[in-house]
Amino acid sequence: MGLILQMKTTAIVLLVTMIGCSGGAQDDPLFATRRARLLDVVSREQEKSPYVIASKIHKGVEIDRAFILLDSLTYDKGIGGMFYAYSLIGTYLYTQDALPDSLKQKVRLAYQNRMMYRGDTENHWVMYYTGLYLAAQTWPNEPGETWFNGKSSEENLREAAGWLNEWFRISSTIGQGEFDSPTYFITFVTPMIALYEFAADPVMKAKAQLMLDLLFVDFAAEHLEGNYGGAHSRDYPEDIINPLGAPSTMWAWLYFGEPRFEQWEETRFRPRNRGGWEAVFGALSSYRLPAIIRSIATDRSEPYVHTETKRVRNVIRFGKEKNPPAYKYTYVTKDYVLGSLHGGILQPIQQHTWDVTLASRKPYNTIFTLHPYYSGKELGMFFPEELKFLSDEVDRYHLVYTNPGKWNSSSPYEQTFQHRNTLLILYKIEKGVMQPHIDGFFPKNLDERFVHSKGWVFCRLRDTYVGLYFIKPGEWTEEPVNWRWRSPALKNGVIVEVGSESEDESFQSFQNKVLSAKIDLKGFDKETSIRYVNRHGMEMRFSFDGPRILNGKQINLTDYQFFDGPFVQSVRGSGIITIRYKNQTRVLDFNKATIQESH
Amino acid sequence: MISRTGLLSLLTLCAVTLLSAQPSESTVYASVISTKLFVVGAANPLTGLFYQKTSEDTVWHHTGPRNIRANGMAVFQGSKGRLLYTASGNGLHMTTDGGAFWRITTGWEITEVWNVWVDPKNSSNVFIGTAYGVYKSTDACDTWKQVLRGFVSSVIVDHSNSSVLYCTTEDGVFKSTDQGETWSRTGLSINRIRTISQHPSDPMTLFVGTEYHGMYRTSNGGKTWIKIEAGIDHPTFFTIAFDPVEPRNMYAAGYATGVYRSTDGGYSWKRSNKGLDIENLRTVAVDPANPKRVFAGTYGNGVYRSDDSGLTWRWVGLRGAQVGKIVIEPS
């Protein structure tokens, strides 16, 4: 009786310390179905992809064909570098029991004869060092002459472990530099899956599990029906304008169970040549997403604010601080996600500073604005090449960098201030800057889009409503999938209000409330400042390079935690991330390489 | 019908040509960062370290690792043989057996290696300039120590005194008098320095090229600097080279400059681009064995060569290449 009473009056705490044991339970009965479906589909593909090869061999489909594909991968000079370094060894390890010795030897020789370029970005290094770690572990006690870089197996293992441990430390204390990227998510999660699956060192395996949990919960907190919502450090433009087409969607589908359809049957969700099918490594892995993270990704019963502090990629020029903080604010509801970075150059080339992503199965379910900035100086902050060659160089790889109509860009002339579902964006573009205009993306397939006589642009997609007020005028042009709003005003600003039927009842009601909001632009032309009282009566005062003031109280971005919100909390620098959902808690302790669960 | 005198003259000419050609055969090394021929999604064209004999004209041979973004290179001919170094994004590659076996001598802590300089008097002392600072090895690249922080575009060892080093950085030109252990800023107040070159016989005279402010000259080891104005119409210089035999002859190049040539020790300059099809250059080198022979590495179309001290140029290969550094080793 006493024991029962104690159980009733005291929280039942289950404390699990996990070093090197398998992941937490995943009470998702459909995971096995999705996993099997993915492997089934990919095993019937024909492209020369490590993931297709792994699927074919795992499923026993066209095994001879798989061997031919793998054989050609070992000598194809068109494939190399960091993408090759981890995917080849991952495929080898997943399939080695079925491989003939001759093919095993060819894979081994690839790590001797093929230079694996390490690259110059965070994702490059994760892939490179994960690949090097697993390869060195697979073929131990071999001299430098048998490795592409002239280092012995032990030297390679030690170097790879050294960098991976450093990456774990940075990512769990000040954040990733290439954070929250729907495009690049696969380049972090896939190597970590392979590392978790095959690392022989239990501590390394435990750290890979911690990192996987962190990557997934980071995604989950901003996830909405398959979309990676909010702002992103870097993305391809096609992923920005069509969020469900991003590579991260397949991982959301596999692990979160959203979006709720078999995506590969829809052409627009098919992985593109530059990526695709990486989720096969997940499907083959024993890693299981903790149920608590899946709950966080899918429970949208209550709206919430989620904030994060990430870091800027290594600044090598034009800055005193190597990794300044990047502050991120996201408001998540069941109908939309509105998210923003605080502004400025936080990443080169591909930054996505703000958007509203709408819950929808339609493509192009997003609205945003940007200043399509480019300069040798921006690139020079992050790349060592000569400033005057850099723009051309980057254009050759990314194709759109100097394009005035591009849909991804950081800008030193853009700042934001967000409070829940209201966002203010200010632009203060210097004279003489290339591409002196701001652009707005409005998908054509909105159910409604019109300009109100009072200047607001109102949009509706199903039961979600968006209002945008442009401080200076612009012009609309029609493009294949969207309307483009462009303003040449150097000083400009946008007020964004987002609502939904559940928050505002009808679209008309939303419009009425927004139209009654108070816009004070007396200081705009002189100081690029705005005072705005939103439809909920909250006063927001904001000036470019000035304070953000909410109801008379200044918001200090430096007060942001590493993670803060109902689901994820972490003090910056602590290396401890607490994940909460209802009465469940999961604590990721990167310092001790442990996971503690309680419920 | 050739007359006896004519035949004699022809034989004499041939003999002179053979005699003069024989000792001037040198090896030209070119580090190729990337190539304009690269198409996203396609196989990378071969890049890395190339070399040729000067008699081979447009023929180039590849050695060492491929596709490593080879920014710079160095060669050291010592008592134990030739040492080759390639400064790359992957780190510093090195071979001690003429190129059969290469090893990356640096670990994960060192990246974006921009150039490498070997102490001419002691090949155990090697310095590399990187996007994160200067690193020093005193054990032939077995271990490394960071001796200066910041973005470093080039580092050189004083050929007359191995204790003295200069490096160019985003924050100016720095000098060390204790083998790189400590550094102090020289008297140049300009930032964003890209390259430095030392006079072959007057070690106190050095030239630097900058990103935005042209070229500067010092004749007192960096205490004071004078901006070079005469004949200079461009702001950005990535390379400055001396004729090692007749140092009054100099060459400089950079962004959209073509080749600048000086015949008065760098006091005045003239552009000399006849035969050059591209004006973006990153490196110029003079053949010590035949100083009339000058090689220019371009950013996008390989290597050009002059056999008349830079008066005229012709393309000699590596089409599309973005050449990081040319070094010429006399035989």
Walk me through what this model shows.
The complex is a heterodimer of chains A (599) and B (331). Helices cover 35% and strands 23% of the residues of chain A. In chain A, helix 3 (50-59) packs antiparallel against helix 4. The two termini of chain A are 22 Å apart. By secondary structure, chain B is mainly β. Residues 1-5 and 7-22 of chain B have low confidence and may be disordered. The longest helix of chain B has 18 residues, at 4-21. Chain B has one helix and 28 strands. Helices cover 5% and strands 44% of the residues of chain B. The A-B interface holds A 76-81, 115, 117-120, 125, 129, 144-145, 148-151, 159-160, 162-163, 166, 273-274, 316-317, 384-389, 393, 396-397, 399 and B 33-34, 36, 38, 40-44, 65-69, 71, 89-91, 101-104, 107-108, 111-112, 114, 130-132, 151, 170, 194, 211, 236, 238, 255-256, 280, 282, 299, 322.
Oligomer: heterodimer
Note poorly predicted spans of chain A.
1-25
Structural class of chain B: mainly beta
- Overall pLDDT confidence of chain A: 91
Alpha carbon gyration radius of chain B: 20 Å
Q: Ends of chain B: how far apart? A: 39 Å
Number of strands of chain B: 28
Order of helices and strands of chain B: HEEEEEEEEEEEEEEEEEEEEEEEEEEEE
Structural class of chain A: alpha+beta
Please count the helical segments of chain B: 1
Task: Round the mean pLDDT of chain B to the nearest integer and report it.
Answer: 91
Can you give the helix content of chain A as a percent range? Answer: 25-40%
Percentage of β-strand residues of chain A: 15-25%
- Characterize the main sheet of chain A: 9 strands, antiparallel
Q: Unreliable stretches of chain B, pLDDT < 50, 5 or more residues?
A: 1-5, 7-22
Counting DSSP H or I runs of 4 or more residues, the number of helices of chain A is 19
Report how far apart the termini of chain A are: 22 Å
The main sheet of chain B comes to: 4 strands, antiparallel
